[in-house]
Amino acid sequence: MPPGDYLSGRAQPPLAEPPPVTDVDITVRRAEDVASCRAAVARWATAQHFVPTAVGQVVAATNEVVANGLRHGRPPVRTRAWSQDAMLIVDVEDQGGRAIPAHVGYRPPVIPADSAGLWLARQLADVLVTHTGDGRTTVRMYFPYAVTHRNLRIPT
Fold first, then answer.
1. Secondary structure in 3-state letters for 38-106
2. What is the pLDDT of residues 54-109, one digit of tens each?
3. What is the DSSP letter of 17?
């Protein structure tokens, strides 16, 4: 079975609602707002004791998903982030309500003009799940401390 057919046939279960209060809750309405979102996520990940390289991974993945929400979805794009046990969770939601094709982001772009956002985010997050419903498209990324820091130098 071709991978696209397999992935398309998978059920897309709804995601659990984010907690009522999160560590980061920022709304991006236009491209100029993305920098403040990146800065907020960087401060938060640093406060959660992620080392600079791991912080960069969380920020880069979030940046790509937020940019995709602006480009392919419909603003505003809301980013919420929280920690659970030793894991950072980033939830990005746009108002476009357009389903993300099941196969998107599992292979690198073929030509430079192809979008690399979800592919890059999938490379950086341990788990990335999507859901479309109720007029919203959500991408949720999970960054467990142990996995994100594997093979990184941790200062002692």
1. HHHHHHHHHHCCCCHHHHHHHHHHHHHHHHHHHHHCCCCEEEEEEEECCEEEEEEEECCCCCCCCCCCC
2. 999 999 999 999 999 999 899 999 999 999 999 999 999 999 878 776 666 667 77
3. P
Query: Phi and psi of 49, rounded to 5°?
Result: 70, 25
Sheet holding 136-144, edge to edge: 24-28, 77-84, 87-94, 136-144, 127-133
β-bridge partners, 140:
91, 129
Q: What is the pTM of this model?
A: 0.87
**Share of the chain residues as helix, strand and coil, in percent rounded to the nearest 5:** 35, 25, 40
Tell me the C-alpha distance between 128 and 99, whole Å.
Answer: 15
Amino acid identity for residue 145 in this structure? Y
For the beta carbon of residue 148, count every other beta carbon within 10 angstroms. 23
Q: At 123, is the secondary structure helix, strand, or coil?
A: helix
